[in-house]
Design a protein that fits this description.
Elements: E1 2-9, H1 41-51, E2 54-60, H2 61-70, H3 80-85, E3 88-91, E4 105-108, H4 112-120, E5 126-130, H5 133-141, E6 147-152, E7 172-180, E8 186-194
Parallel strand pairs: 1-5, 1-6, 2-3, 2-5, 3-4
Antiparallel strand pairs: 6-8, 7-8
Length: about 200
């Protein structure tokens, strides 16, 4: 399977709490819900296209628990059947089988990159990470991510956990497509190419 990271970001790179003020208040974050004002039909249609490419999902514990709490109750949402029905993998050393009740769920404990690499070897299309920025960072550093789908909202929140923090792994990318929704969300899709290239500017055309 292809490992795809899908993230909502602010213009200053924050990925924390896009969906609601109380979605993720860890580390005292109080500015959640910044993506919602920029949702429109065009973006929801695009999100539906991405979801249709999934054969499984991969989460960190916090995102898994949020999704597991909300999606089983949203049975009338057009995305619910896919999210509730497809296999879910959770990279966690603390989640227990009795707590992982959003079936079908498999817990990946111990060496997460090694276990994710094993899941990737299974046949299929997308293994999608939704949110779970810390997990995405570790898998980028391990060279396991194949594609980034970044939806950037036209807002600066000034604080919060970032997808690409200082000291993160250098990563080369190749832009494969981009678009902007009527509500102003800038969508960029990148293939991960390995280590970045470096050069010195020599001037001239």
């Amino acid at each position: 399977m292809k490992l795809v990271v899908q993230e909502f970001l602010t213009l200053d790179g924050v990925s924390q709490g896009p969906g609601a003020p109380d979605e993720d208040t860890s580390d005292g974050f109080t500015r959640g819900g910044w993506f919602v004002p920029h949702l429109d039909e065009a973006f929801e249609a695009l999100a539906g296209e991405w979801l249709a490419e999934a054969d499984a999902f991969l989460f960190g514990r916090r995102t898994y628990e949020n999704f597991a709490r909300d999606w089983p109750r949203m049975t009338d949402h057009p995305f619910a059947a896919t999210l509730n029905g497809l296999p879910k993998y959770v990279a966690s050393n603390t989640l227990t089988a009795s707590e992982a009740t959003w079936n079908p769920t498999t817990i990946l404990s111990g060496d997460a990159p090694a276990q994710v690499a094993e899941v990737k070897r299974q046949p299929g299309r997308d293994l999608q990470i939704h949110g779970s920025a810390r997990l995405a960072q570790s898998l980028l550093a391990a060279g396991l991510v194949d594609e980034l789908r970044l939806a950037i909202a036209p807002v600066v929140v000034g604080e919060g956990r970032r997808l690409f923090p200082a000291g993160g792994a250098p990563t080369g990318l190749r832009l494969t497509s981009h678009r902007t929704t009527p509500a102003g969300v800038s969508v960029h899709i990148f293939a991960v190419t390995g280590s970045p290239d470096y050069a010195a500017y020599g001037g001239g055309a």
